[in-house]
Design goal:
Radius of gyration: 16 Å
Oligomer: single chain
Helix content: 40-55%
Number of strands: 2
Strand order of the largest sheet: 1-2
Length: 89
Amino acid sequence: MCRYVQKNFVKDFIIGTETGILYKLSKDNSDKNFYPVTNLAQCPNMKKITLTKVFDALVNMKNIVSVPDDIRQKAYPPIYKMLQIASQG
């Protein structure tokens, strides 16, 4: 999302994800405007994530999240599509 905004000539963006990203987007793109779809999209748990914790989870296989297979199957297509879009950036 950050790369897309930086490369895009558009000046106004509607952001439909966790509002915490608005600060970074605004800081890195002071000439552009960002509007949240809702101010209710706030996740206190996302703010607890650090690179150290991600590294520890990956290296030591800590905090594994398991998802029921029916949910995994429904979630796979949009996640796959997001990763495809991100890799094009």
